[in-house]
Amino acid sequence: MEQFNQIISSNTPVLVDFFATWCGPCKMMAPILQQVKGQLGENVRIIKIDVDKNPALAQQFQIRSVPTLKLFQNGQVKWSGAGVMQADQLSSIIRSVAGLDTF
């Protein structure tokens, strides 16, 4: 938990994918998140949290369905969404919310 809090406290935007191994739509997100990372590079950090292995985090952030994506910056939730999203849409949201429109 302490390591998670340290990661999300970064000035660099951190996209957290709350997922479950048994979740079909969650599996669809893996290549999409790779595309987002390819589009944004070092401007974003992407981590995956298995809600079954980290129930305290899932409860803390009120994860009711998977996949749920949350964008953190400086320890604060800047954006949240549930379900499968397309890479371009997700990259656009991250750029906008995190102030990365300049590149």
Low confidence ranges: none
How would you sum up the global shape? globular
Rg of Cα set = 13 Å
Helix proportion of residues, in percent?
A: 40-55%
CATH architecture heading = 3-Layer(aba) Sandwich
CATH class: Alpha Beta
Instruction: Please count the helical segments.
Output: 4
* Head-to-tail CA distance between termini: 33 Å
Query: What characterizes the major β-sheet?
Result: 4 strands, mixed
Structural class: alpha+beta
Output mean pLDDT: 94
According to DSSP, the number of beta strands is 4
Order of helices and strands: HEHEHEEH
* CATH T-level fold name: Glutaredoxin
**Which strand-content bin applies to the residues?**
15-25%
What does this structure look like?
The protein is of the alpha+beta class. It has one domain (2-98): Glutaredoxin. It has 4 helices and 4 strands, in the order H-E-H-E-H-E-E-H. It has helices at residues 2-8, 24-40, 55-60, 87-98, and strands at 14-19, 45-50, 68-73, 76-82. A 4-stranded mixed sheet has the order 2-1-3-4. Helix 2 (24-40) crosses helix 4. The longest helix is centred in the N-terminal third of the chain and has 17 residues, at 24-40. The protein is globular. The chain starts with a helix and ends in a 5-residue tail after the last helix. 25% of the residues are buried.
Summarize the structure.
This protein is of the alpha+beta class and 103 residues long. It has one domain (2-98): Glutaredoxin (3-Layer(aba) Sandwich), CATH 3.40.30.10.
Architecture blueprint of SSEs:
Blueprint: H1 2-8, E1 14-19, H2 24-40, E2 45-50, H3 55-60, E3 68-73, E4 76-82, H4 87-98
Parallel strand pairs: 1-2
Antiparallel strand pairs: 1-3, 3-4
